[in-house]
Specification:
By secondary structure, the chain is an alpha/beta fold. The strands form three sheets. It has a seven-stranded mixed sheet, with helices on both faces. A four-stranded antiparallel sheet has the order 9-10-13-12, with helices on one face. Strands 1-11 form a two-stranded parallel sheet. Helix 1 packs antiparallel against helix 7 and helix 2 packs parallel to helix 7. It is globular. It starts with a strand and ends with a helix. The structure holds pyridoxal-5'-phosphate (PLP). The site of pyridoxal-5'-phosphate has 13 residues, from helix 3. Pyridoxal-5'-phosphate (PLP) binds next to helix 3.
């Protein structure tokens, strides 16, 4: 395969070789069903429970929270919203989310609305951040859940989740959920004041197909899947033990590397920012020096998709809008909510960095992008 410069790490990450070895070892040697009562089943279940305990301990949540393993963050977000709202509908029918959540959360909220629940979509400012006073004003007697993502997947904006958690402590009936997919392994945050947290393995060099909803022990759900009663009856289906064990390893490795990752990625980010600032063809949508992992720029004149294709031909992978839905949508609702500028929201490029990326790759990317944009200009 020709050389690839991969700058699309917010879409997914390359699997870590150590994580892959764990996956292979567990798949081959511990293939028993974790629900079986024979020796192979018991051994698989032991590994499953160790992974569960390790994830909680890495996030320092072992006393207060527990883990429900899912197929990824989409399922975890659906469970947090639908499972929670259905379970506690006798307490109230109002839910608050931000207007720039990932589609897996926005669409779950919309589907609850169709069932008769009331949803408030909080606006964001031009940095993509909600206003805590607006959140406070949106709370009603019927509000039972607030869900605000920790870091946005398209623009990297960071929400004040600690402040939100502290506000919501005043309302004993309201639980707080955060989608922390783009924060874990990137931004140092503490989750002990948060009632439910969504994670996924493939954004932290684990494999695709496994994630988790971490929830306070006293919270329960109306399960989305009916079946054999795994995960305390909250998520039926045979546990993918190899993938779960690899997930806990990916989390351990990414947290251990975090300080050096941040230092390295910041240098790459600074170089990119210098280039974008000096380029009159582009608007920088975000410039969060506290989140150097995602950069989002809009092209003033040219089509982002043409640039993405041109770069791809050179072996450089970046994103326009978000890989999860860029084929189906012609504009970014996230950029629109932040900029209120339709033209900009149709022309966004997302560059998302990772510890694997080198300064040489960034220089090559800048060189190719520059010649593409100059070529398009002529
Ligand atoms: N939430 C956020 C913020 C994401 O970036 C993504 C993936 O792009 C998801 C949820 C969905 O994750 P998964 O692919 O594990 O379903």
């Amino acid at each position: 395969m020709n050389k690839i410069i991969y700058l699309d790490n917010a879409s997914t990450t390359k699997v870590d070789e150590e994580v892959m070895k764990t996956y292979e070892r567990v798949s081959l040697s511990y293939f028993g069903n974790a629900s079986s009562i024979h020796r192979l089943g018991i051994e698989a279940n032991d590994l499953l429970e160790k992974a569960r305990a390790q994830i909680l301990s890495l996030l320092k949540l072992e006393r207060s929270h527990e883990v429900i393993f899912t197929s990824g963050a989409t399922e975890a977000n659906n469970l947090a919203l639908k499972g929670y709202m259905h379970q506690y509908k006798n307490r109230g029918n109002h839910l608050i989310v931000s207007s720039i959540e990932h589609p897996s959360l926005i669409e779950a909220a919309k589907s609850l609305e169709k069932e008769g629940f009331e949803v408030t979509y909080l606006p964001v400012d031009n940095h993509g951040v909600i206003n805590i006073n607006v959140l406070k004003q949106s709370i009603k007697k019927e509000t039972i859940l607030v869900s605000i993502m920790s870091v946005n997947n398209e623009t990297g904006s960071i929400q004040p989740i600690e402040e939100i958690a502290s506000l919501l402590k005043e309302y004993s009936k309201i639980m707080f959920h955060t989608d922390a997919v783009q924060a874990i392994g990137k931004i140092e945050k503490s989750y002990d004041d948060i009632d439910m947290v969504t994670l996924t393995s493939h954004k932290i060099h684990g494999l695709k197909g496994v994630g988790a909803l971490i929830k306070r022990k006293n919270i329960t759900f109306d399960p989305i899947l009916s079946g054999g009663g795994q995960e305390n009856g909250l998520r039926s289906g045979t546990n993918d033990v190899a993938n779960i064990v690899s997930f806990s390893k990916a989390l351990r490795l990414s947290l251990a590397k975090l300080p050096s990752t941040i230092k390295h990625v910041k240098e790459l980010y600074n170089r990119l920012m210098d280039y974008f600032k000096s380029n009159p063809e582009m608007y920088i949508l975000n410039s969060f020096s506290d989140n150097p992992f995602i950069l989002n720029v809009s092209l003033k004149e040219k089509k982002a998709a043409v640039v993405v294709e041109g770069l791809s031909k050179k072996g450089i992978m970046i994103s326009s809008i978000s890989a999860c839905h860029s084929k189906s949508e012609a504009y970014s609702y996230v950029v629109y909510e932040m900029s209120k500028d339709e033209k900009r929201s149709r022309n966004t490029l997302r560059i998302s960095l990772d510890y694997h990326n080198t300064m040489e790759e960034i220089e090559e990317f800048i060189h190719e992008l520059d010649s593409l944009v100059r070529g398009l200009r002529q």
